[in-house]
Amino acid sequence: MADAKSSKSDVTALSHVSREAFRDGMAHLAGAVNIVTTDGPAGRAGFTATAVCSVTDTPPTLLVCVNLSSSVAPAFLENTALCVNTVGPDLAELAMAFGGKLPVDERFVDEDWSTDVTGAPCLKGAAVSFDCHVTARQEIGTHAVLFCEVLSVARADSPSASVYYARKFHALDS
């Protein structure tokens, strides 16, 4: 077995896969469809993301990745309130709108929104909403990774969710 020093040098000698190969591979990694929202001094904003995952349950923390070149990035980089709203097939059109199909100021118009502890917009029709306080940010390449401490969780009575796989939405029922 090689020692850590020789393994590290072997890895650094390798080249990365192409951007296209990585993106094609990621298209086959299923992810929950989430509408991530914020509000605060930098304004109200939201986007659709699959790049959300659990970090730890003590304290309850999620991570969310936001593209630094997106129109919503400045709001997410300044505000500390954030809500991850996991959506089902009934909200696929809204997920598409938050994916960039509508200007940021028009995305919140047609649905029922509320606020919880942080003041971030919580979607009433979501399968689950995680109301969070952003505790840390780390920029990696084209994205910022936001570490978000969960302060409140709201679940739907009979939720359904969607996953994004092979560049399409797929419905999941409970």
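(the above was protein one; protein two follows)
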Amino acid sequence: MTTEESIVVDVPVRTVYNQWTQFEDFPRFMSGVERVVQVDDTHNHWVTNIGGVRREFDTRITEQRPDERIAWTTEEGEVRQAGVVTFHRLDETHTKVLVQLDMEPEGVAEAAAEKLDVVGKQTSADLRKFKAFIEARGTETGAWREEVDRPQP
């Protein structure tokens, strides 16, 4: 299943990108994400609870370019996905955020969710929450500006 959603945020690209690198803040604007633990520069451990189904999994950042993109893939756990979020400077104070997500449904519930585009709707809702979060703050909670280029083995 592939999902692609985007939103325009009324904040400069640097601020938007910097906030997105703060993975442990994701529960503040992503429904169903209970916790993200940043293990090191390229690995995160996720705990989600979506529709009463609790899952844990690990992701690896495969590419990260400041103010441009962050790509990831799962490595361990109950979820199989890969994705990329790209940041597009529209002008000094507006940024388009584009999320592309590929997931493998794991069972009947996820297969039904795929048919109803639940992931796409949730991604869109989470982007709206991110927009409200970062626009209300006006600044990021932190930043990580290093580059990562570690394609899958």
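Reviewer note on protein two: The chain has a mean pLDDT of 91.
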